[in-house]
Automatic annotation (TrEMBL):
Gene Ontology MF terms: dioxygenase activity
EC number: 1.14.13.-
Tree of life domain: Bacteria
Full protein name: Aromatic ring-hydroxylating dioxygenase subunit alpha
The keyword Iron-sulfur belongs to this UniProt entry's keyword annotation: yes
Enzyme class: oxidoreductase
Rieske domain: residues covered: 21-132
UniProt KW keywords: 2Fe-2S, Dioxygenase, Iron, Iron-sulfur, Metal-binding, Oxidoreductase
Amino acid sequence: MTETAPTTAPADDGFLRDLWYFGAIGRDVKPGKAIHREILGEPVLIGRTHEGKAFALRDICPHRGILLSTGQVVKRDGESQVECPYHGWRFRPDGGCAAIPSLTADQAAAMDLSKIRTRSYPVAERYGMIFVYFGRDPEAEPCVPPPVLDIPENSKIRMVETDIFNCHVDHAVIGLMDPAHIPYIHRQWWWRSAKSVHEKAKNFGPVERGFSMLPHKPSANSYVYRLFGGQRQTEIRFELPGLRTEYLRLGERHVTGFTAVTPTNANKTTITIVMYWDVPAMAVIPKALISKGIRTFVGQDRDAVNAQQKGLAYNPQLMLIHDADVQAKWYYKLKTAWEKHRTTGEPFRNPVKPATLRWTS
Ligand code: FES
Ligand SMILES: [Fe+2]
C-alpha cells in the first residue's frame, strides 16, 4: 500500500551530523507560514504554527515528492498543519500525516495514517535565530544543546547580512578564519592600510567543540575599533559545525557579530552574519554604512573563495603553513575528533591545546 525510500544523505559529503545548524532568522518565518531552505544538501521546510512555535520538516511530500513549502500552513482541528499543494495531504509539525483528502470514509478508517510521515528535525529558537538539528539518526534526540552565545538570550537582532559562496563549507570556514589573507583581500582604507601590516601574537585556547582567540585589546591598527575608545576587549570564538562569534566588549556593553557558515550543498555555502549590540555609540553610525562595510568585507572573501574554485577544480595538493594556518588545522582536527566521537561512542576530545600563534598581517 505504501512504500518509503531511504532518505539518508551520502556519508562522504564532508558535512558533520549530530550538530545544530543555522536554519533561518526567526522573524523571516511568520506565524502560520513556512519557508524553504536547502541545508546539508537536504530540502528543509522551516515553519511556524499559528501560535508561534517554530518547526522543521523534510520539505518533500511523501506522496509524490513536491516541496511541501509550496503549499500552506492551515489550521485544522485546532492544530497547525502543512497542506501539500498537489493532493492536499496534511502533515503535523512532528511530520506525521494528519489527513489524505482523497480517501473515502471507510478507506480512511482502515488506514493507519501515522505510518506515513516526512522527517521532522529538532529546532531551537534563540537570539532571534532558528537552529535546526541534523542527526545522523533521524529519530534520535539531540546529543548536544543548541548553540550558546555570551549575550542575553532576548538580545535584539540589529542587522543581518547574507552571502553565498560557491564552495564546499570547509573552504568557506578556513577562508574566513585565516589571518594571512587580510592584507591582500581586505585592503579598504577604513579597515587597515598596507602600511599597518606587522607581526602579531595572539593567544588561543580550547572552548566547547572549538577554540577561542582569547580576550585581548583589539589591534590599534584598526580604525573602526578606535571609534569606541576606552575599555575594550575582543574575543573570537569558533565552534563546530561552522559558527564564529566575534565579541567586542566595551565595559558592560557589547557589539557582537555572529557568523553562521552553513552548507547549502556540496558546492554552495550560505554565510549569515547577525549583528547584536547595546552600545549607544552605535546609533551615531548610519546602519547603511555598517551594512555596506560588512557586505564589502564578506564580498571580498566570497570573491576570493569563488576564484579559488577555478584552481581547486584541478584537485591540487594543498598546504597548511605555520602559525597562520593553525586555525585551519584545528578545524580539520575538530571535525575528525567529532566524527570519531559520533561513530565510536568514545568521549569527544577537543584536539586544541592552549597556544600563542604568531604571524604577520
Ligand atoms: S504530492 Fe503531496 S499530496 Fe500528492
Ligand atoms: Fe576575510
